């Protein structure tokens, strides 16, 4: 098991805990939660790829590689949909609270939203023409996005 499986579960748990501690879930929160699920689904690819690279067990390697091959055609659309859901989340939130810079959730959310946009752009650039540099940029944006979302949920 790669540490990213554990970290992803922890982030999912934090999201669920935040939702559970609210009395009711309004539409703007629902879009944020869906965006989180779509992001985590795509980001788990990193955990799967790292496990494939590190595992000694050939059977596990083959199983995970076959599984991730099936997901490839959906990856780009799941990522783009995550951005769309978060743009709706942001529009609803800003209509509700305005640009309130004293509300940490607005500031941390905007940071996460910008990294997500960069992530999606880097994904499309990688798809059009892949290079080792673009691959590293896509992965490092993913790691930054993970921590930006973690800060957004904890604050
Ligand atoms: C990757 C990007 C994002 C994800 C995954 C995300 C996810 C979430 C989730 C799951 C919640 C509800 C749980 C909680 O309160 O912690 C939430 C709340 C919130 N988000 Fe985001 N969000 C993102 C981006 C943004 C952006 C761009 C904004 C900027 C406007 C924003 C502003 C807020 C605010 C203000 C709340 C609290 C709403 C309230 O108290 O009713 N988020 N977000
Ligand atoms: C939430 C957004 C996204 C996340 C978290 C994400 C994450 C990842 C991860 C972890 C990998 C594997 C990295 C590796 O090579 O070791 C990957 C690969 C890739 N991503 Fe994304 N990605 C996102 C959005 C996109 C989008 C919108 C596209 C658009 C085309 C895209 C295109 C690709 C391509 C072409 C690859 C390499 C082929 C493959 O292994 O599937 N990604 N992505």
Summarize the structure.
The protein has helices at residues 3-20, 27-54, 58-97, 104-128, 132-154. It is mainly α.
**Overall average pLDDT:** 96
Q: What ligand molecules are bound, each kind once?
A: protoporphyrin IX containing FE
Number of separate domains: 1
Instruction: Give the overall form.
Output: globular
Strand content: under 5%
Q: Low-confidence stretches at least 5 residues in length (pLDDT < 50)?
A: none
* Cα-based radius of gyration, to the nearest Å: 16 Å
Residues in helices, as a percent range: over 70%
What is the number of beta strands? 0
Structural class: mainly alpha
Encode the helix/strand succession as letters.
Answer: HHHHH
Gap between N and C termini, in Å? 29 Å
Q: Report the sheet with the most strands, covering strand number, pairing sense and barrel closure.
A: none
Q: What is the tally of helical segments?
A: 5
Structural notes for this entry:
- The chain is 86% helix and 0% strand.
- The model has no long low-confidence stretch (mean pLDDT 96).
- The longest helix is centred in the middle third of the chain and has 40 residues, at 58-97.
- By secondary structure, the protein is an all-alpha fold.
- The chain has one domain.
- The chain has helices at residues 3-20, 27-54, 58-97, 104-128, 132-154.
- It has five helices and no strands.
- It is globular.
Task: Give the topology.
Layout: H1 3-20, H2 27-54, H3 58-97, H4 104-128, H5 132-154
Helix pairs in contact: 1-2, 1-5, 2-3, 3-4, 4-5
The structure holds protoporphyrin IX containing FE (2 copies).
Residues 15, 18-19, 29, 32-33, 35-36, 39, 86, 89-90, 93-94, 97, 103, 105-106, 109-110, 112-113, 116, 149, 152-153 line the site of one protoporphyrin IX containing FE.
């Amino acid at each position: 098991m790669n540490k990213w499986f554990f970290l992803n579960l922890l982030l999912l748990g934090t999201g669920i805990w935040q939702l559970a501690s609210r009395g009711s879930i309004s539409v703007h929160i629902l879009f944020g939660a869906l965006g989180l699920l779509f992001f985590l689904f795509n980001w788990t690819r990193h955990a799967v790829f790292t496990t494939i690279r590190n595992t000694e067990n050939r059977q596990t390697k083959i199983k995970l590689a076959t599984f991730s091959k099936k997901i490839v055609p959906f990856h780009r659309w799941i990522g783009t949909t995550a951005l769309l859901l978060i743009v709706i989340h942001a529009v609803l939130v800003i209509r509700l609270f305005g640009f309130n810079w004293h509300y940490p959730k607005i500031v941390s959310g905007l940071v996460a939203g910008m990294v997500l946009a960069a992530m999606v752009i880097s994904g499309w650039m990688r798809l059009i023409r892949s290079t080792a540099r673009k691959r590293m940029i896509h992965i490092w944006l993913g790691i930054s996005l993970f921590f930006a979302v973690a800060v957004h949920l904890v604050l």
